From TrEMBL, chain A:
Any Gene Ontology CC annotation: cytosol
Annotated InterPro entries: G6P_DH (IPR001282), G6P_DH_AS (IPR019796), G6P_DH_C (IPR022675), G6P_DH_NAD-bd (IPR022674), NAD(P)-bd_dom_sf (IPR036291)
The keyword Transit peptide belongs to this UniProt entry's keyword annotation: no
SUPFAM superfamilies associated with the record: Glyceraldehyde-3-phosphate dehydrogenase-like, C-terminal domain, NAD(P)-binding Rossmann-fold domains
Protein family membership: Belongs to the glucose-6-phosphate dehydrogenase family.
Pathway recorded for this protein: Carbohydrate degradation; pentose phosphate pathway; D-ribulose 5-phosphate from D-glucose 6-phosphate (oxidative stage): step 1/3
Signal sequence segment: none
Name of the featured protein: Glucose-6-phosphate 1-dehydrogenase
HAMAP family reported in the protein's UniProt record: G6PD
E.C. number(s) listed in UniProt: 1.1.1.49
Organism: Streptomyces longwoodensis
Binding-site positions, substrate: H202, K206, E240, D259, K362
PANTHER family the record matches: GLUCOSE-6-PHOSPHATE 1-DEHYDROGENASE (PTHR23429:SF0), GLUCOSE-6-PHOSPHATE 1-DEHYDROGENASE G6PD (PTHR23429)
Automatic annotation (TrEMBL), chain B:
Top-rank lineage group of the source organism: Bacteria
Database matches in PANTHER family: OXPP CYCLE PROTEIN OPCA-RELATED (PTHR38658:SF1)
Pfam families: OpcA_G6PD_assem (PF10128), OpcA_G6PD_C (PF20171)
Annotated ranges, domain Glucose-6-phosphate dehydrogenase assembly protein OpcA N-terminal: 51-165
InterPro entries: G6PDH_assembly_OpcA, OpcA_G6PD_C, OpcA_G6PD_N
Limits of the Glucose-6-phosphate dehydrogenase assembly protein OpcA C-terminal domain: 170-299
Name of the molecule in the record: Oxidoreductase
Native organism taxonomy: Bacteria, Bacillati, Actinomycetota, Actinomycetes, Kitasatosporales
């Protein structure tokens, strides 16, 4: 950047009451009529405005195939905000926001629409002082990515005028294997510089995930035992209680491993396993996460150490639910996995010999995401074996959602005359110690995009490295066997339990 | 639940707290700070309500210290401590103890408060009214990391402001300053957009408004230009003008929550600038518990500021 350095005399690093307000900017959402946009993006924009974190003159441009005028769009946003926003509705905040709303009706291959978009962007620069800074949020199915970025390029929207920025925001899936991910990256990077492309993994916007780094690197008491000398194994779980719902078209052929393990679970694993970054900036974090992902080694026998499953019909939480193969729009012979468990090893000095078990699934017992670091047993116990019969392994569990917090499990004496030791837990809950309503992940991520802060966004190298881990597993599954069936509402197929039993371990019940 | 204790001591109150927590089944809660509110009976209700609302963001143990004046001279010599322990749904997300002191114990309220502080957690003292002359030297103020006063609640705000400037100690803060945060952040954002040096400035506000004076001093200190104080009809701060070579940057809020921002060469636009409730102000105060250096700068004004390294 060649802009002259301008120091705002009203800002000072010591003045920490002043919030990080995004600079002059606007957000263009493609696919603005979609579910994500209505339930997450629009409310997040409003919540940011309500918290005073958006610049005066912030503008929101919607682009979709609807015959709407600006006011109709504003009405849709209004309804979405009313229904889904986290903070209370305030008329004055709404007015401030509504003045900067524009809507562009059109298709993605409609040149006039993109010309209108360009005019709108220029008009906003003039009338709202957005300063040429725009983020383009592609809330559209990946098959439209090439078309949209090409149109942005063609109409000169992707090129930032001197001293301003243009950013692209894309959502998962980032391809369905290494080759397609590389292709997608090539298309997007052809138009936007790699550091101006923000890939949303909304898990990374969650407070608890950011807290993994605080827990590990701001404290002295965890890091010394965070290694192979003390840790027995690590379990990372993301369970959903819902089925595929109406997403049959998207889900079938993709499956849980590609949908969840490739991005969310491998990111959680990288944050759990990585070394301390030199500083807390995007490039240092990337360096460390990449190092871990590159050190990941797959088990030699994929049949023994990976499991996939499909939910069968059954009862879940008191409701009768159909099996995956009976869901509407699913081929009864489908081999798509709705449950996947894999064992990974990280071949470095810190983690050699410590398995990482990653599992995800739909229609499991309850909705929960957690990282459990399970410790080895004490090398020697002065208590006799009857005293410690009920003592399990110590564990630190990071509860990512819901009920965000951290649990520490350890043994404690049961009150009484005899020596008996049993597991107890010590609990830190976010909801208890901090704000009841911590910001939604999307709020944080949208603000970061506008600020240009890339800490919480996976870079294309990470995406590609993750596919390198998953691709061999998917290939093995494609040619060997069928997914195991598991009862809806259970914690996965029998085979998954056997997979851990072979290693002499067992899954936690989350 | 609520436990009433008459003619009691701190250790009995501590027992009641444990008993209350056991009874509602939450033996350990993640409270992050102790909030001590020193006030009179008249302001106690509103202050406690604000603190309980703020406790949704910062679960805390709230100690409300009310100094009572007995009616008869004989009663006045007798020292007595009454307490009301509230836990669970009646106390926001934490615990509340209302302490009423009569007679001599009123002068030794710190001896009651000290044993009731949460172990190892920060302490905040808030005087909604009648703050001591030197907050950091007050026996209760000395227990705290953070001392909150309110210039809106004094007889002669501008004179008190001078006193506060003289007696400032790290950890002092004032709600008149807290009220300015939205103004300050919008002014900073406006300059982010204007990107030009400011050559003159003016703050318009109702007469004798301490927040306006603090804002003017802050602007003087940061912009290094003299700031005009213009008296308007109010309410509170109504406008700030920053003169630049290209024209004026103005935030104008004649009334209500909607302000207008004008930047040179750009059409004006509206801004939400609401007057916030006390509970929101307290919640903001509790977000950071270290010394607020910028408040010290604003209190001292331009004449005494040391040159910051990065300018």
């Amino acid at each position: 950047m060649t802009t002259p350095v301008w120091t705002n005399p009203l800002r000072d690093p010591g003045d920490r009451r002043l919030p990080r307000i995004a600079g002059p900017s606007g957000l263009v959402i493609f696919g603005v009529t979609g579910d994500l946009s209505r339930k997450k993006l629009m409310p997040a924009v409003y919540d940011l405005a309500n918290r005073g974190l958006l610049p005066p003159g912030f503008s929101l441009v919607g682009f979709a195939r609807r015959d709407w005028a600006d006011q109709d769009f504003a009405q849709v946003v209004h309804d979405a905000v009313r229904e889904h926003a986290r903070t209370e509705f305030r008329e004055e905040v709404w007015q401030q926001l509504a003045e900067g709303m524009r809507f562009i009706p059109g298709d993605f291959d409609d040149d006039t629409a993109f010309k209108q978009l360009r005019d709108a962007v220029e008009e906003l620069d003039a009338s709202r002082g957005t300063g040429g800074n725009f983020a383009f949020y592609l809330s559209v199915p990946p098959k439209f990515f090439p078309k949209v970025v090409e149109q942005l390029k063609k109409h000169g929207l992707a090129k930032a005028p001197e001293g301003s920025w243009r950013r692209a925001v894309i959502e998962k899936p980032f391809g369905h294997d290494l080759a397609s991910a590389q292709q997608l990256n090539a298309i997007v990077h052809d138009v936007f510089a790699p550091d101006q492309v923000f890939r949303i993994d909304h898990y990374l916007g969650k407070e608890t995930v950011q807290n993994i780094l605080a827990l590990r690197f701001a404290n002295q008491m965890f890091e010394p035992i965070w290694n192979r000398s003390y840790v027995d194994h690590i379990q990372i779980t993301m369970a959903e209680d819902i089925g595929i719902g109406g997403r049959a078209g998207y889900y079938d052929g993709i499956g849980s491993a590609r949908d969840v393990i490739q991005n969310h679970l491998l990111q959680l694993m990288a944050l759990t396993a990585m070394e301390e970054p030199a500083s807390f900036d995007a490039s240092s974090l990337l360096t460390e996460k990449l190092k871990v992902l590159k050190a990941v080694k797959l088990p030699e026998d994929l049949g023994e150490h990976t499991v996939r499953g499909q939910y069968a019909a059954g009862w879940q939480g008191g409701a009768q639910v159909p099996g995956y193969l009976e869901e509407e729009g699913i081929d009864p012979a489908s081999t798509t996995d709705t449950y996947a468990a894999v064992r990974l090893n990280v071949d470095n000095r810190r983690w050699a010999g410590v398995p990482f078990y990653l599992r995800t699934g739909k229609r499991l017992g309850r909705r929960v995401t957690e990282i459990a670091v399970v410790f080895q047993r004490a090398p020697h116990s002065p208590f006799d074996s009857t005293a410690t019969e009920e003592l399990g392994a110590n564990a630190i569990v990071i509860r990512v959602q819901p009920d965000e917090g951290i649990t520490v499990r350890f043994g404690s004496k049961v009150p009484g005359t005899s020596m008996e030791i049993r597991d107890v837990t010590m609990d830190f809950a976010y909801g208890e110690s901090f704000t009841e309503s911590s910001p939604e992940a999307y709020e944080r991520l949208i603000l970061d995009v506008l600020l240009g802060d890339a800490n919480l966004f996976p870079r294309h190298q990470e995406v590609e490295e993750s596919w390198k881990i998953l691709d061999p597993i998917e290939e093995y599954w494609a040619t060997n066997g069928r997914p195991a069936q598991y009862a809806s509402g259970s914690w996965g197929p029998e085979e998954a339990y056997e997979m851990l039993a072979r290693d002499g371990r067992s899954w936690r019940r989350p | 639940m609520k436990i009433d204790l008459t003619d009691t001591t701190a250790s009995k109150i501590n027992k009641a707290l444990v008993q209350g927590r056991r009874a509602i089944g939450t033996p350990a809660v993640g409270m992050v700070l102790t909030m001590v509110i020193v006030t009179d009976e008249e302001n106690a209700y509103d202050a406690l309500k604000a603190a309980e609302e703020a406790s949704h963001e910062h679960p805390s143990r709230t100690l409300l210290v009310i100094k009572r004046h007995a009616r008869t001279p004989r009663e006045r010599t007798r020292s007595r401590l009454d307490a009301e322990v509230r836990v669970g749904s009646e106390a926001g997300t934490g615990e509340t103890v209302v302490l009423r002191t009569y007679g001599e114990v009123s002068d030794h309220a710190d001896s009651v408060v000290l044993p009731l502080l949460l172990p190892d957690a920060p302490v905040v003292v808030w005087w909604p009214v009648d703050a001591p002359g030197v907050p950091s030297k007050d026996p209760l103020g000395a227990l705290a990391q953070r001392r909150i006063t309110d210039l809106y609640a004094v007889e002669n705000p501008l004179r008190t402001l001078e006193d506060r400037a003289r007696s400032y100690a790290p950890g002092d803060t004032d709600l008149a300053w807290t009220r300015l945060t939205p103004w300050r952040s919008m002014l900073a954002a406006a300059l982010d957009q204007a990107r030009v040096p400011v050559v003159s400035a003016a703050v318009e506000a109702e007469a004798e408004n301490p927040a306006a004076e603090l804002l003017a001093r802050w602007l003087e200190a940061r912009l290094r230009v003299p700031v005009d104080r213009v008296v308007s009809d109010g309410p509170v701060v109504t406008a700030v003008r920053l003169g630049t070579a290209d024209g004026d940057v103005v935030i104008d809020r004649p009334e209500g929550p909607l302000a207008t921002l004008s930047l040179p060469g750009q059409p004006s636009r509206t801004l939400a600038l609401k007057v916030r409730s006390t509970s929101e102000l307290i919640a903001e105060e509790l977000r950071r518990l270290d010394a607020d250096e910028m408040y010290a700068v604003a209190l001292r004004g331009e004449a005494h500021e040391e040159t910051p390294a990065h300018v």
